[in-house]
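Deviation from plan, reported transparently: NAI complex.
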Amino acid sequence: MAKLKDKVVIITGGVSGIGAASAELFAEEGAKLVLVDMNEELGNSFVEELKGKGHEAIFMAADVTDHDRVKEVFETTRSTYGKLDILFNNAGIGEVKPSEELDYAEWRKTVEIDLDAVFYWSQFAIKEFLKSGGGVIVNTASMYGWVGSPGSAAYNAAKGGVINLTRSLGLEYAERHIRVNALCPGFIETPILGDTNREFLTNATPMKRLGTPEEMAKAALFLASDDSSFMTGNSLIVDGGYTAQ
Ligand code: NAI
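Because the crystal trials were delayed, the predicted structure below was used instead.
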């Protein structure tokens, strides 16, 4: 039995890396998708690819920090599919810079995308879910929400914030059938890694390899589906052993 049969899912950052692999897996499990991303060209071609495989998906170009656009995404989801079941807050950016050189605008940009937007999008979803009787939110945080690392102060602070935001929303809505959980990936081979030295990341990981977007998609499916029906306010760390050290 398909795990997300007829479930309507919004995935931000849904056309690349972890988001795209999740979109594909969720669609295979019967979900109807609203994919949101800043990358319009990739978004359009990816949705065509999904439709070519017989999946139901639409793409909406949006910057997750654009408040007016969020509203439009939720309205279009309702007008297209008639409901919303799952929000996957996955869009994110990384920043690698010594903290003494990080200016306030750079700090703000990372925190706005990686943390503020997670709250704002969740608030929209929660309003829908309170009317419809329930729903699920999955937030992509990071193992760097659990441990620190040099040179990514804003990113690590934002991801730590996502983990505690997840706890707080999970508790706040636990009795109202809204589950909120976070996925905390380790080093995953996606475009966000840029030209970061792969040998360094591999050696730092106890399993001595990077994770794949498909491995993250399986974890996201667990959190999005009824397989995790007794889990809320919590995190799933999938990092090849990094944070066990
Ligand atoms: P990715 O770069 O392949 O995907 C991120 C997507 O988010 C891109 O499609 C990008 O266009 C989109 N995006 C970025 N800023 C946006 C904005 N303001 N509005 C709309 N879309 C925006 O990278 P990946 O790895 O798939 O990233 C997904 C999530 O996983 C991010 O939240 C990232 O922080 C998190 N993560 C990734 C890890 C990794 O090693 N790849 C490790 C831990 C967490």
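Residues 12-13, 15-19, 37-39, 62-65, 90-93, 113, 140, 142, 185, 187-188, 190-193 surround NAI (CB under 6 Å). We consider this an acceptable substitute for the interim report.
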